[in-house]
Specification:
Layout: H1 13-23, E1 28-32, E2 38-42, H2 43-60, E3 67-71, H3 76-87, E4 91-94, H4 101-111, E5 115-118, H5 123-127, E6 138-141, H6 150-153, E7 159-161, H7 162-167, E8 183-188, E9 198-202, H8 203-213, E10 226-229, H9 241-247, E11 251-254, H10 261-270, E12 275-278, H11 280-293, E13 302-305, H12 312-322, E14 325-332, E15 336-340, H13 352-359, E16 370-374, E17 389-394, E18 416-424, E19 430-435, E20 440-442, E21 445-447, H14 449-456, E22 462-472, E23 476-485, H15 493-501, E24 512-515, H16 529-536, H17 539-542
Parallel strand pairs: 1-11, 3-4, 3-5, 4-8, 5-6, 6-7, 10-11, 10-12, 12-13, 13-14, 23-24
Antiparallel strand pairs: 1-2, 8-9, 14-15, 16-17, 17-18, 18-19, 20-21, 22-23
The structure holds adenosine-5'-diphosphate.
Adenosine-5'-diphosphate binds at residues 189-190, 192, 236, 306-309, 328-333, 362, 418-420, 432, 435, 522, 524, 526.
């Protein structure tokens, strides 16, 4: 073997911010701040403050390998924590404030968090479980002195003010050179089945992921971007965007706690955002606001939606009414970005309707993500767009084992079972049929709950729909459709079933439609089928 003669470098996450500070120092991170008002800071200044934070962390006694929690909105301070914590070799553990108190307690104890950096909005979330968190030594409140109150200080453990900690430090800091296998961040899955599981990302993962996600057929990032990051930094490593946008010198626009339609629209308009991303339920808030106020978003080019299946009506709505491309992606905490939809040349020849069918698929894997579908015996299935099976992934951006787990999460050949069922077509477009546990098994046939839901929300008077397999005396399970009506609308059951029957075989039609006022959502804003199942599992038997 003749070795190559190029230099080697172990990249660390802080290198990204250092690059942004040096070459895009004036490019701004703009935040709708928790305290109120818009906050602006360039990457150069943000880097200086991150160095001050590193000094403050060392003064607090934070050591390399310590898991330090953050429970925060998307803000510039949260971004400083991401870089500062991983920069000194500690692990930035993003906590989702919307989890149930017992899940938060489980996660903080499992990760043995020593400190939590917390926004003022979430102090009570921690305070509620504080007496059950023995490893927690202190809280750092992410605000300035003026916004610290006496109540915060009386919480029962040491409480520090973020800005005061930074003010006491200089911006001289020599970052340690960490082996790129060192852990940099930790994110737990929301635990829809069993306890939440920790996914521990390395510096190498984060760098590899950032470079890949900048690609044209992923987030297509560049210094021309003004990216509104709606997806929370605590959801699946913030989809990698807090790292990949600064890597290319793009402007980051952070909505803080202001996630209503009007605030998002105003921010897009003023900051001339050309890209944004969120799960479908959150994107509904934006499109509903645009629809009902007759507004346009001319600066916006691309919207990236994932986390659950994006209905055709949403992709079509953004394209036809707002001239915005929706790029549908699939991923998991265990992979972050997994696949992305994209426009391939063959699609130029398709009719609008045919193209929409392709755009609804979850897409193709970028370089480094191996992907296959298998039957129950593990045999690979063809890429014909019809055969469906367990979706398996492999590669350097896929989990090897969960945090503190003794056993690998992979099969003997290194494949990770995603828990999703999907097809892959001849062009390589993967389409999720369902999560394994959501698929409806009716008399030996399988019905995709995702397909039924997507068709149902195409009804102009349906806000959101969930399809469940519920017990049936004869067929074992039958689909039941749960619907939230659009405000001021009153669709009939038969009109909803008519729309579904226009696209699905008769045996796939839901046996009934139930209207509810509010859809239960998970902590990451996806439909939560667990409480619906508990409530409606005997609905057809009783009926
Ligand atoms: P959580 O359980 O906290 O939501 P994840 O965000 O990691 O955790 O969830 C990953 C799962 O979300 C995937 O396994 C898949 O079932 C679902 N998912 C993600 N993106 C999509 C998508 N575009 N379409 C359908 N399902 C999706």
């Amino acid at each position: 073997m003749i070795p190559g003669l190029m230099q080697k470098k172990q990249f660390n996450v802080i290198d990204i911010l250092q690059h942004a500070a040096t070459w895009y120092g004036d490019v701004e991170v703009v935040t709708n701040s928790v305290e109120g008002g818009v906050h602006r800071i360039g990457y150069a200044k943000l880097y200086d403050r991150t160095s001050q934070l590193a000094n403050a962390l060392q003064r607090l006694g934070v050591n390399s390998g310590d898991r330090i929690g953050t429970m925060a909105w998307n803000t510039w301070r949260h971004l400083e924590c991401w870089y500062g914590l991983s920069g000194i070799g500690a692990i930035c553990h993003t906590l989702n404030p919307r989890l149930f108190p017992d899940q938060i307690e489980y996660i903080v104890n499992h990760a043995q968090n020593r400190f939590i950096f917390v926004d003022t909005s979430f102090i009570s979330v921690i305070a509620n479980v504080l007496d059950k968190l023995p490893t927690l030594e202190g809280l750092v409140v992410m605000t300035d002195k003026e916004n610290m109150t006496d109540d915060m200080l009386k919480i029962g453990i040491p409480v520090y003010c973020y800005e005061e900690l930074l003010e006491a430090e200089t911006s001289d800091f020599v970052w340690p050179l960490l082996d790129e296998d060192t852990a940099s961040s930790l994110c737990y899955t929301s635990g829809t089945t069993g306890n939440p599981k920790g996914v521990l990302y390395s510096h190498e993962f984060n760098l590899n992921h950032s470079m890949i996600s900048a690609h044209g057929d992923v987030f297509d990032l560049s210094a021309k971007d003004s990216f509104l990051l709606i997806v929370p930094m605590f959801h699946a490593n913030g989809w990698g965007l807090p790292l990949s946008v600064p890597m290319v010198g793009g402007k980051l626009v952070l909505p803080g706690p202001f996630m209503d339609g009007k605030s998002l629209y105003d921010f897009i308009k003023v900051e001339k955002c050309n890209k944004t991303c969120a799960v479908p339920t959150v994107m509904t808030i934006l499109i509903d606001h645009l629809d009902s106020n007759n507004l346009q978003i001319p600066s916006m080019n691309e919207i990236y939606i994932g986390g659950s299946a994006v209905p055709q009506s949403m992709i079509e709505g953004f394209e036809v009414r707002y001239n915005v491309d929706v790029n549908h992606g699939w991923g998991m905490t265990e992979t972050v970005v997994g696949t992305f939809n994209c426009h391939l040349p063959f699609m130029d020849e398709l009719s609008f309707e045919e193209r929409m069918k392709v755009r609804c698929k979850q897409g193709r894997p970028p370089f480094g993500m191996e992907m296959k579908i298998v039957d129950n015996e593990g045999n690979s299935l063809p890429h014909d767009g019809v055969a469906f099976g367990k979706l398996m992934v492999r590669g350097p951006r896929v989990i090897e084992r969960y945090y503190k787990a003794k056993e690998s999460a992979l099969d003997k050949d290194g494949w990770f079972d995603t828990g999703d069922v999907s097809t892959i077509d001849k062009y390589g477009f993967m389409q999720i049929t369902d999560r394994t546990k959501d698929i409806i098994k009716s008399g030996g046939e399988w019905i995709s709950s995702v397909d039924i839901e997507n068709t149902a929300v195409g009804h102009p008077e349906v806000q959101i729909a969930a399809c469940l397999g519920v017990k049936h005396m004869k067929w074992e399970e039958r689909p039941l459709l749960i619907v939230v009506k659009k405000e001021g609308c009153d669709p009939s059951k038969s009109s909803i079933l008519d729309i579904i029957s226009s696209e699905h075989a008769k045996w796939q039609l839901p046996d009934d439609v139930v209207f509810i006022d509010e859809m239960p959502l998970t902590a990451t804003g996806k439909i939560d089928k667990k409480p619906l199942r508990t409530k409606y599992e005997d609905f057809l038997i009783e009926g």
